[in-house]
Amino acid sequence: MSRKYVTFFATILSLLFSFSFVTSGVHADENIVIDADHFPDETFRKFVISFDKNKDGQLSDSEREAVTEIDLQNESISDLTGLEYFTKLTQLNCRDNQLEVLNVSQNKALTELDCGLNNLQTLDVRANALLEELYCDGNQLASLDVKTNLALTTLNCADNQLKDLDLSQNIDLKHLDSGTNGLKTLSLNKNIALESLNIKNNNLQVLDISQLSKLTDLDCSDNGLVTLSLEKNPDLKTLYCSNNLLTALDLSDKKELVELDFSNNRISSLNLNTKRPLTRLNGIDNEYNVLIGVSQELDPARLPGQFDVTKTSQWVGAKLDGNIIRIDDDAEIVTYRYDLGQHQTLPFKLTVSYKERVTVSFDTDGGNLVEPIVVDRGTPVTEPPVPEKFGYTFKCWQLGKLPYKFENNVNKDITLQAIWTINRYAVTFDSMGGSLVFPSLQNHGTYVLEPMPPYREGYTFVEWQLDGEPYDFRQPISGNVGLTAIWEINQYEVEFDSADGTPVTSETVNYNSTVAEPEAPSKEGYTFKEWQYKGKAYYFEQPVTEDLQLQAVWEIDQFNVIFNTDGGSEIDSDIVNYNETICEPKVPVKEGYTFVEWQLDGDPYDFEQPVTKDLQLQAIWKENLVKAVNQRDHSSIIIPTEPSAESTDNRKDHETGDRIGNKKTADRSSQSTGRSAIKNAPGQTQPIIKQVTVTFDSNGGSSIAPLTVEIGTQVIVPQPPTKENAEFQGWYFNGKPFDLGQPINQDILLTARWSTDDEFWVTSVSSIAAVPTAPLQLTAEPEPISGDRTASTDAPTLTSSVQPTEITTTTNTTSVTETTTSTESEPSTEASESLTESPIASTEPSDPPTDPSILKGDGEAPINANTNLREGSLRILPQTGQGYAAMIVAIILLIIAVVLFVIRSIFKKKK
């Protein structure tokens, strides 16, 4: 920072302090009475009277402001109270007085202050920012703060009691005299403007002036300096470095040097290269100690500095032997003159010590052996190799209680003690991805404290290892230890609870690995859905971080149960859970048949047994048969009460108590064998569909093709069928007229109803079954065979057990079924002739039978000669007289009712 900036800032600070003084100190325009109250010191009071220009005994503001310099040197003044009134004061000289206190805090305009040679113990100049020169030498100051005096260029603080001095802010300082204090250190790195420096008579052992390139004058005498480097001070003119411990001084480049005092050091040579001879040169009493052995030889290379033996002369006590200085026998002092240059020589002295051989022993204190060294008395001993001691580091050799300096001369037998520092070893813990374990320092021979096991997610700590081996924390430490954590990856058990399914083997899985999805278990009656954990689906791609118990989730199997009614009324299929039972459905109805049971694979089905698979139950029917007897030859046949399943084009319409007239043409092919076969077409499984079939039974009329319609729609009315000698009356379903406008929801069979004169009466089975009786036995004689075939005279009788129920039988079948007996008789000629005379194939109608001889009461229905088995009607009688008795009872009851009605009518007329 340039001086003009420093001055500017100092001026600003001074103005600020002045303002503070105006507001808190003496008020402007206030007259100061010149008396003892304002100026206690008489000498000072008399001095300020000179400033009272109008002689009124007061100092006005203008009179005070006119005072800029005060010189009170050597006036025996002890008190300068009143000095604060002179705020414009720039120079103050109060040197060589008796002052113990000096207050210049209100004199902010001061640029020069000389208060040296007083008794001041403190001095505060922090408010004097404009101060450029300060002389406070010869006091008793223990400290001095000049950090705010940025404009300071000259400072003389010599002859005080300063222990330290901070000049880091005084970068414009050019002249410094801090001699005769107690300074042990002094930093001058920031004071690059210094030109003169006086630091004599302090306690400095080191002096760094490498930044003072402008230095011209240096006085560092009377310190403890061992070395002094002047390499960075090329402009040096005066140098005073006497009374130090210097052994060498390089002034070869100090061409401007004019004054030099290096006396009373240990310098043995000096080389000058000045422009002109020195005006002052003092180098006396430079005495360098040399140790001479019995050889009496001194190598000049042992002498410090740049000793040039060729520049020596006037040797006393020694002589030159080439480049070797040979000391005279018993000489203790050797003197010589040394040419400094510019024809200037000075005397130098070597102090010679003659020593006998002495032994230097080494006590290694448990370290390895160090052999003693024998040296000449008065010579330094060569430092031996560093000893070694296990667990310790060598520090130094010690003589007594002080470290031994091997540059010192040995004058007697000595024993040097090895000083050791116990080794401290670093113990580090590499947790290998686990939690941090802090390192520690352990003394040799102690034990490493085993830390708490670290934590690492998914792993279990096993041990600490050193170089691949388990570390024993019970062994004393003898070196740096780097321990490595050994981990064992956690393994988790993954169990599979198959919930009564086939067992699934548990898996052991490493941490953060995935478990392989096992083969799905099986369970009878169930379908495996998924594995779950804690109620949620488990994804086998996720890593395993804990023991798992996976639960198998099953869906119960469901089975279709289909009821094949084999042409009977439809039974809806059912869906049943595994191991549950089927509710037995309502009994189906099939015209001309009696339901027997449901079968599965040919065996009766037990509805109490659980379902374990898809089922198709087959309805088993028993055909309702009647026995027809030929009255002519008393032969009989068993005929079904309705068409068989093979005659789908000739089904009858059934209605209890009605007279039904049909004429059917018998199937000649089936009758030609003289036998009838009962056949039921096997039922087919009815799948659940969205379409239904409407089948039309024209009942002997022209055929009508079946219709397939969507469920819930109506039947499209087909063209009515035609039939010879009959008039179409409409379509019937289950004995009732069918409304073709109603929606269709299932397969149905519609039967044509006709009006015709070809009707024959058949006694309904229901007329003989009002009271439960034994099964109705129907028999029928065989029909004669045309052509060259002859019917058996002893045709087998077909018997059908018909439960007593209401049945209307119409023999409009195309074939007659038979049940073959265990034996057959040979055909008889009489039976053959009888059949020939009364052919069954006759189409002539016959009147309803009225001959009581037909009703035998034995349950047989004889066939008249003119009865046509294919197109006529039969009068069916029960096998017992119970049906006939029932008719008689009914007639009697009717007669009683008529009689009661007549009697009641007569009684009313009489009244």
Overall description:
With 911 residues, this protein is mostly beta strands. Among the domains are: 355-422, Listeria-Bacteroides repeat domain (Immunoglobulin-like), CATH 2.60.40.4270; 424-489, Immunoglobulin-like; 491-556, Immunoglobulin-like; 886-911. It is built from six helices and 54 strands. The strands form 13 sheets. Strands 3-4-5-6-7-8-9-10-11-13-15 form an eleven-stranded parallel β-sheet, with no helix packed on it. A five-stranded mixed β-sheet has the order 24-23-29-26-27, with no helix packed on it. The chain is elongated and about 195 Å long. The model is unreliable at 1-7, 13-28, 642-689 and 757-880 (pLDDT under 50).
Label this structure with key terms.
Immunoglobulin-like; elongated; 8% helix; mainly beta; five-stranded mixed beta sheet; 6 helices; 911 residues; single chain
